[in-house]
Amino acid sequence: MGCAISGLAAKAEFGERTTEDAAAAAHPREDQIQMIKESWKVIRDDIAKVGIIMFVRLFETHPECKNVFFLFRDVEDLERLRSSRELRAHGLRVMSFIEKSVARLDQLERLEALALELGKGHYHYNAPPKYYSYVGAEFICAVQPILKERWTPELEEAWKTLFQYVTTLMKRGYLEESNRQRQLALSPKERPDKRNTAL
Ligand code: HEM
Question: Which InterPro entries did the record assign (predicted)?
Answer without folding.
Answer: Globin, Globin-like_OT, Globin-like_sf, Globin/Proto
